[in-house]
Amino acid sequence: MGPDTSAAVVDFEDGQGFTENNQDATTVSIDDPIKSRKQRKATGNAFEEEDSDDKTELLSGQKKSAPFWTFEYYQTLFDVDSHQVKNRIVGSFLPWPGKNFAEVYLRSNPDLYGPFWICATLVFAIAISGNISSFLVNYGQPKYKYVPDFRKVTMAATAIYSYAWLVPLALWGFLTWRNRKITSLVSYSFMQIVCVYGYSLFIYIPAVILWIIPSEGLRWCSIVVALCLSGSVLVMTFWPAIWDDKPRISIAVISAIVILHVLLAIGCKTCFFSTYEMDSSKVHNEPLTVTNTSSTKAN
């Protein structure tokens, strides 16, 4: 055995002894680069699969939602931009034949941002317009002193938010029950129905502002226009969910949707806005009564 061979054996034995003494040391083998490349490739494939899954969920609109008791669930309901809100507002009072509001504008991404602020704006519009209307009706009356009626805010809020939540809740419960019996029916989530009803109330905001003008003809004309526009959106949205059901049930559901929509408009007009002709007649009668009384005393 030559000197070079003995030196190699000594180096090998020294390296083996160093490894035994340092068991925690990191050793690199010849096939490590191959394994590391395989590991990097496997990791890269895993990330690509996750990215492709996320892209697929986003494109299909079927992103997994958080449970309803978590903050993330309600955070997604307010995650909407101004462009989407504007399109949904326009679509809520411009019904087009064959266009379903839920399928075209909502899909699987309903929001509460638009419905909440639409309802809040409508509440204050009703209260403020009702107070201004009362002032215009009674203006010029003897000893009249304008006092704003803040009870109208509470009454309007109760009526609007009850309609925007309780009616969708009842409709969602009924559609869910019928969907279990007839599987071919189109199903809507509760938030989708709330979103549709919330945006359908937008057309009443300009209509209520017009009610300030003390003209019964103008008021009823604005009511009819608002009912036809928003009511058509509701009918075209929920008709596909019940058209496969029995005819009498389908007609009953559509009739209930329209009747409740009409009652809301007529109820707001009756409760918050005075009738101009009746109040004006009272104004003209009061001075006559005073005059007659004074003349009787003089006699």
UniProtKB/TrEMBL annotation:
Cited InterPro entries: Yip1_dom, Yip5/YIPF1/YIPF2
Signal peptide: none
Domain of life: Eukaryota
Yip1 domain: residues covered: 93-265
Cellular component terms per the entry's GO annotation: Golgi membrane
Keyword S-adenosyl-L-methionine found: no
Sequence similarity: Belongs to the YIP1 family.
Name by which UniProt lists this protein: Protein YIPF
Organism encoding this protein: Cyprinus carpio carpio
